[in-house]
Write a structure and sequence with these properties.
This protein is of the alpha/beta class. About 35% of the residues lie in helices and about 15% in strands. It is globular, with a radius of gyration of 21 Å.
Length: about 325
């Protein structure tokens, strides 16, 4: 569970469901999501069953957050920070949602029945799989639920948003990431989504392999420019992390080192200055990128507030590190 800013600038509550399915066939150099996947395609019905489980947990969580009356003679319990009802849902499957070997096509209708009613459904997809097959799922989200639907939410319009990994606009580095995608292919997929009235979210790596710190910042900025030039409504900056073995090997040969926190902060500031769409900094396990324990918590809170407010906040002064590197 998390919050994101909507296009109106107000925060919305978002549930992210991590679905278990077959491993992604692309096996990008920097990816570690294969560690949470299967070796075979799941049977029809498995993905809807996973969603049923997650939505039941979500319903319990939302119910627990509601203020409740005690017995008639007792006081009313009040919560000072009652979370909002969950409005968006992400179906992330450690690969491409529209890979039929990951998510069976026969399950599309059942999946749509379960998530229809959220304002926005966000899925991941490799640009090579962005084609007419996506339109069927988009249209299913817009149809009336079947009698077997598990969804009891009331929502007239459910928008589909597709998240694609651009990773970097540096053509040579992109070709070395084993993503098997060109910038031209990304642009064609983005154009297809735009003409199909499907929103685009873009993932950008901050300091992928083969770039030093200065060039990493330069290309993070250029990648943000490229994403918005291709119609992105959201761009997410993801610091490149150790964890899959390949990056550890590249570190031994001097071809990779994780980014400094300052590089993420500077790229984030650039994206906000463009005012062309929403910018999000991925804050998961962010401490591993910090060089100063004295100011990390304040810098983390600053980035969190910038995610929600979509404005650059004043920088921090740290007597130990100067607040920069």
């Amino acid at each position: 569970m998390e919050e994101e800013p909507s296009d109106s600038g107000k925060p919305v509550s978002v549930a992210t469901l991590f679905l278990t399915n077959r491993e992604c066939p692309w096996r990008c150099l920097m990816c570690d999501l294969w560690q949470n996947t299967l070796t075979e395609t799941v049977p029809v019905g498995a993905i809807p069953a996973q969603i049923d489980y997650a939505l039941a947990e979500l319903a319990r969580s939302e119910a627990a957050a509601e203020p409740r009356n005690t017995e008639s003679t007792g006081p009313v319990r009040k919560r000072s920070a009652q979370p909002a009802r969950t409005r968006w849902i992400k179906l992330y499957n450690s690969g491409s949602f529209f890979d039929p070997n990951a998510i069976p096509i026969a399950d599309y209708e059942a999946i749509a029945d379960r998530v229809r009613g959220f304002e926005r459904v966000i899925v991941e997809c490799h640009p090579a799989l962005v084609n007419d097959g996506i339109l069927r799922f988009r249209d299913l989200l817009a149809t009336a639920p079947s009698s077997a639907s598990q969804n009891h939410r009331v929502q007239s319009v459910t928008r589909l948003e597709v998240a694609m990994g651009l990773e970097t606009a540096h053509p040579d580095v992109l070709s070395r990431l084993n993503k098997r995608m060109t910038l031209e292919q990304f642009s064609r997929a983005a154009a297809f989504l735009k003409t199909s009235d499907i929103d685009l979210r873009v993932f950008i790596l901050v300091k992928p392999p083969f770039l030093d710190e200065r060039n990493a910042l330069t290309w993070a900025k250029r990648s943000l420019d490229f994403a918005f030039e291709n119609g992105a409504s959201v761009a997410s900056l993801i610091p490149t992390r150790f964890g899959n073995g390949a990056l550890e090997e590249l570190a031994r040969t001097g071809e990779f080192a994780p980014p400094k926190l300052f590089t993420l902060e500077a790229a984030f500031a650039h994206g906000l200055s463009l005012k062309r769409g929403r910018i999000l900094a991925d804050l998961w396990d962010l401490q591993r990128f910090s060089q100063c324990a004295a100011c990390f918590e304040k810098r983390l809170d600053r980035l969190h507030q910038m995610n929600l407010q979509q404005v650059e906040l004043p920088g921090l002064h740290c007597e130990r590190c100067g607040g920069a590197t």
